[in-house]
Amino acid sequence: MALITEQLRENSQLGPGDEDWLHLLVGDWQLVADLAFADLVLWFPTGDGSYVALAHVRPSTSHTAFHTDFVGERIRKDLRIMVDEAWATGQLQRSVQHPADLAGQSTVQAVPLVRQGGKVAVITSHFDLASSRTPSNLELVYRQSADDLLTMGTLGLWPDFASPTGSRRGAPRVGDGFIRMDAAGVVEYASPNAVSAFRRLGAAEVLQGQSLSDLTMALVSDRRVIDETLPLVVQGKMPWRTEMEYRGVNISLRAIPLRDERRRWGSLVLCRDVTELRRREKELVTKDATIREIHHRVKNNLQTVAALLRMQSRRMNSAEGKQGLEQAMRRVSTIASVHDFLSKGLNETVKFDDLMDRQFRFIVEIASPSQRVRTVREGEFGMLPAELATPLSLVINELATNAVEHGLAGRDGEVRLLAERYLGRDGHKWLRVTVSDNGHGLPEGEYSEGLGLQIVRTLVTSELRGEIHWNQAANQGTEVVIEMPLDLRSNAH
C-alpha cells in the first residue's frame, strides 16, 4: 500500500520517527480493514485547517464502501466535522448517518493517531450498512478486535516497531485463521480456518478454552531444535512472526498483543497452513542447487578440456597446429568462465559488466605475452539476458584477440571496449558493442576471414541476431561495431 509522503515532509510538526511509524501503519493496516469489514482512509492536516487523504485501503473480507479512489484529495466538509473533533479531543469519534455522496449509508469512525503525546494523523473507518445483516459471532469478534487495534492507535501503541516488516511468502492474513486470546494465553475465540489448521497438526477439535502455548509446545515437545520465538508468539507476548512444523505440516503464525498504557490484556494470533507453499519452495531450492551444480561441473569439465588442449599444444611440432590448439583452448576457457559466472547466480539476467571487468583484461594479456597492450573499457552493458552471455563473451574474446594479434601485430598499443545502449527504430532496446585498436588498420583490398572471424560472424547473426561492421578507426586503427537487440524474444522472427 503506497503512502503519499510529500505532505509529510512539508510538515515540520512531525516528531522523530513519526513518518516511519505512519509507513509502518500503512504497511500493516490491511489487517484492521479486514477485521472491521471497512474501508480505512488516512487523513493528514494540510496546515490551513483542512486534511488531505494520504492512503486508502479496502477490505478483502467484504466489498468496498468506495468505488473511486480519492487519495491526494482534500477532505469533504461533512466528514471534516468528525475528523476535526477527533483531532481536537484526541478521542475516537463515531457517527452512524453519513452523507450519501461519500459512501451511502455507513457507519463512520474517526480515529486520531497519537504518538509520544503528539497527534500525527487521523484514520476514518467506513462500514457500508447496505451489506449489514445479523452479524455472526465471527464478525462480532473481528469488529471488536479492529476497535481494539484502533484504540491502541490513539495511544501510540499500534503499530509496534517490533512488528514483522519482511515480505516472506506465506505471511498469515485474517481470513487464513484467526485466534483471540486473553492475557494468560487462553483461547477466547478461534475461527473455523484456525481450528482446521491446528487439527492438521494433530490438535484437538476445539481450541476455545485451551492454552494455545501448552497445546503447541506439546506438539513439538519431541523436537531437539525449536524456534525460540515460538513460545512468545503462541503466548501472544511479542508482535512477531514464526513458523512451526509437525508431521509434515507447516503453520505460519503471527501474534499481535493487545494492551493499554499499563499492561497487556490480550492478544490476537493469525495462522496459516503453508505446507504446500514450503514444499514448492523446497523443490525450487533443490532445482536451483541442481542447476548451480550443473554449471559448476560444466565449468570444471571445460577447464579440463582446456588443460588437455594446452598439454597437447606443447607436444605439437607444427607451429600452425600449435596455434590452432591454443586458440581452441582460449575459446573453451572463455565458455568455462561464463559458466563459472552463471553458477554464482540463477537469475534470468546477468550483470555482464562484472563478467567483462575480469575477462576483458585477461583475454588481452593472454593474446599479448610479449607486448605491452593497454586495455580500456567504457560504457555499461547493464543487465543482459543470460542466454546472451556465452555468445557475446566469445565474440568479444575473438575480436580482442584479433585486435592484438593482427591489429597491433607485434607492437605495443591499446585495445578499447565500448558498450552503449540505445533505443532502436523498432522501439526495442539495442546494444552497440565496439572493439577498437590503434594499430595498423584494415588491410587494403579484399582479405580472407580466418576461423576466428567466421566464428564471430556466425555468433552475431545466428545467436545474437545482430549485425557486425568493420571500419577504419579515427586513430588509423581498426574498429569493429556490433549492434544487437536486447530482447531476443521480441525479435525472434
* Poorly predicted runs of 5 or more residues: 98-103, 489-493
What is the averaged pLDDT score?
82
Taken together, the total number of domains comes to 3
For this structure, the CATH topology of the largest domain is: Beta-Lactamase
Please state the CA-atom Rg, rounded to the nearest Å.
33 Å
Mind describing the biggest β-sheet? 5 strands, antiparallel
CA distance, first residue to last residue? 40 Å
- Overall shape: it is elongated
Class of secondary structure makeup: alpha+beta
Task: Find the CATH superfamily of the largest domain.
Answer: GAF domain
Number of strands: 17
Helix percentage range: 40-55%
Q: Which CATH class of the largest domain applies here? A: Alpha Beta
Tally of separate helices: 14
Instruction: Provide the CATH architecture of the largest domain.
Output: 2-Layer Sandwich
Protein name: histidine kinase
Keywords: ATP-binding, Kinase, Nucleotide-binding, Phosphoprotein, Transferase
Pfam families: GAF_PdtaS (PF12282), HATPase_c (PF02518), HisKA_2 (PF07568), PAS_4 (PF08448)
EC number: 2.7.13.3
